[in-house]
Predict the structure of PhoX family phosphatase.
Amino acid sequence: ATASAAPESRYRFDELTWGNDETHHIANGYEADVLLRWGDPITADAPEFDVMNQTAEAQLQQFGYNNDYVGFTPLNAEGTHGLLCVNHEYTNEEVMFPGLGRQDKQGFAGMTKELIDIEMAAHGGTVVEIARDASGKWAVVRDGAFNRRITPLNTAMTIDGPAAGHARMQTNADASGKAVIGTLNNCAGGMTPWGTWLMAEENFHGYFWTDARDSDGKPDLTAHQDAASKKRYGVPGGWYAWGQHYDRFNIDKEPNEPNRFGWVVEVDPRKPDAKPVKHTALGRFRHEGCETTISATGKLVVYMGDDNRFDYQYKYVSNGTVSHTDDANGNLLSDGILYVARFDADGTVHWLPLVHGEGPLTAENGFASQADVLIDTRLAADALGATPMDRPEDAQPRGDGTAYIMLTNNSKRKDTQLNAANPRAKSNFGHIIEIKEAAGDHASTTGTWSILVKCGDPELAEVGAQWNPETSENGWFGSPDNCAFDADGRLWISTDQGSKWGKTGKSDGLYALETEGELRGHSKLFFRCPVGGELCGPYFTEDSETLFLAVQHPGTDGTKALQGFERASTFEDPATRWPDFDPKMPPRPSVVVVTKTGGGRIAV
Ligand code: FEO
Ligand code: CA
Ligand code: CA
Ligand code: CA
């Protein structure tokens, strides 16, 4: 070797060529097989999917829509048999239901109660047993004893932690303030060290409805005592028509119901009869994800973003320590301290505690108790002077005290609103921050931060991108959303460009992003989505031989802005019919399982 030899990537695979077409692509030497599609039966009794004759009853036994987070917990020592846990974030009525275009933003004029029940049953989550066969391929175990759907239609849940039972958590249907039906808009999530599944409730505001409108047609909140809180959370968003048929989603009838959403939900996939629990100690906001790690002193630490322009990065530190037995870990998510991040220009990050009675979080400022601090986490974080970020999406901690924060984009940031950690105005492509917690301890209340990459096309000076210069035209990306580590602690990033697809012309995909050495900030393309689909997951099994990916809403995002796809998709005329390519089937969100041809660890 000579001194000028190009540094070698730690990720051993030949980069995929960027592009955009009707199907998915994986790097040479790998297989990407569709494992589960929207509508696939997940119980022994489930009917086969019949897209022209959908019912809520059938959907309750079938894989849900818009798969986002994917987690896995093994049932055997070899890790060849286990439980896949998948979030179903939201629904795209225009491609789910024949003859139904997206008619307005005020609740879909064509939505009947029957269709609403189907889409409620398509939200939530799925637990399903999967196993590798003799050839090494993964398949669903349809009669698995643990298989179940979790939905906002009919899954009873418990509320715990400091806000449980508070007057603001009580409704006509639940005087206890501790019992709620269902979970909403579950985006990313996490698996705990004890094998439970955390589902993050993200854009819950969009499901609430009001008939009280001002002269501009905007929600009129004057009848609400907590109007400032509702406004700060965007309640009611009016994205769905559910509130026209269910009182609990109509704030005129149930003004407190929105306070029972926006939390982190814990599900024990090994206990199919156990009620999921909403943990109020982890705060209420548009939770993107909730990835966990164990601190140097054995505490559970959870990193969580609030995915909204100018909102904040949070972390939660348990008071007790992780013992790896089910029982002893019972209250780690109920008893702890929630912090919000302030990123200073000198490169330090300060984690500010959201504790009632400390600093400005007092009754005089509208926080009568810790329940108020948590129900109004955003208002409490405002009072503490947290740093307004460019939409914090997934955040991934690594055991060594490092964490990566995905900031997806913020086209609304003005020149006058820049800060050191969010340095670009009108940021269309986002950036990634690396945090090193003090003493390598995730429970530290200070650390240092730096920008790992600024995303976007490095060839365009006006974009202001920052990549390792070895990054190729295939390797750069925009709008980081989810992230994961493989078994070697190497970082992988998936993208969600949303309406910004046309700004790169690239499909969403999975990228291997170097964090160490000479190639720090170097990115390589490994997988790309069919047109209009965003990439979620990703999740590596413990042996790194399997990678689960979730292709969400194929055929929908940004297609109007792309050459060759200049139309909004509908059931009848989608931009792609991935993965079935059946002229009678709409595109279907699906989980894809990636393995190396012939077996072995991925990218090794
Ligand atoms: Fe559901 Fe923030 O993406
Ligand atoms: Ca996301
Ligand atoms: Ca993740
Ligand atoms: Ca997303």
About this structure: The two ends are 22 Å apart (CA to CA).
